[in-house]
User: What shape does this take?
Amino acid sequence: MTTEERLDRIEHITAGLAEERRKDREEYRQLWRETQRQLNELAGRVNELTLKVSDAEDAITRLAEESRAADKRLENRIEIMVSAIGQYLAALPKPQKGACPGRDVLICEFPYPPKPGF
Assistant: This one.
């Protein structure tokens, strides 16, 4: 093999290596762009989820406040009903001794007729 043939062969190999390097660089750039696109897409999804979580937290807080208000209203109603029952019982006539033989009850007769089935 002559020197000229050797130089041609080295140039050919060098050109092949340069072409491979260029293809690798292009492939790396393409992978980089794809990775960046995926990262941007994921960042957008994370932002959407963050907003949804924030909205859910707001809804939970609002529902908790509404629940506490409803509990307070129910507590007030129960207190009023218990007070009214106490006033009603206090207004009933006291039982007389011996009115209900053998029973320890405060009320032997109802001031109104009982409903059927009682």
